Amino acid sequence: MPSTADEIAANLRTQIQRGELQPGDRLPGIETLAERYSVNRQTARQALNQLKAEGLAESPGGRAGTIVRQRPTTRLVRSRNIERDHLGYYSGPTVQHWRTIQGLGLAIDTRPVPADVAELLGITPGTLVLLRERANGDPEQPQYRQLAASWFHPDIVEDVPVLAGGTGLGGSYDRIEEWAQQPLQWEEEVTAATPNPAEAETLLLPPGVPMLRILRVASLGRGSKARVVEVQDIRMSGELFSVRYPLQRRGAARWPVQPSTGDYYSAGSQP
After folding, report:
1. Domains of the chain from N-terminus onward
2. For 41-79, what is each residue's pLDDT tens digit?
3. Are 99 and 87 in contact (CB under 8 A)?
4. DSSP secondary structure of 120-177
5. What is this structure's pTM?
6. Cα Rg, the chain, nearest whole Å
């Protein structure tokens, strides 16, 4: 019985994952796959396209055909601590030296706010909201970059109108804290997303590579009196970056704990 495109792709995927096919190795061509698996050319092409869509293979052009794509084996860990230098706040030492990417500088505009950001801001989806969007990254390693879009609550823009223009050293966060005379608080939500074409182009994402998305909510005050002033939509390669954080012991998990089955070892059990 002829194989399906999924079965052919699964076979090649296994060979890649086991290291039988190494990065840069040429995959069997359409004619070879069609003959080997007793399928037509269209089925063989679908199998190769499936591996490309997963980011496992690529076609560099010329006579190279389809090859196994080189993928990073380690990721740059993004600290989610807020730190500060003479320029203002930043998220961890790995990005302190990052700068705005030439040709992809700051854009200030008023646009309809997307639904998920609107919910965090506590406003109606589609409301026209001030947006400050920029792309920054590592000047020495251009593949390490991120997109950041800051959506500001209309009320804070009314209170701090400089947010719609040049904010100077320290940026938006300094101007808000100066006005409020109190510190901002931040909370983040980390998800994965499929990039749209513009995001993939700006972030240099090959086909099949997911996007790491972090929604950072900036608030003044705490608890029921907290006022959300900005939501920052941060996007980066899900293949090049990771987020790491310690797990905290809380509640009944604080040490020392009460074992669920009593004193297991003193009862004669061995490790």
Report:
1. 5-68 (1.10.10.10), 76-243 (3.40.1410.10)
2. 999 898 888 888 878 888 887 677 888 888 777 788 887
3. no
4. HHTS-TT-EEEEEEEEEE-SS-TTSEEEEEEEE-HHHHHH-GGGGS---TTHHHHHHH
5. 0.79
6. 25
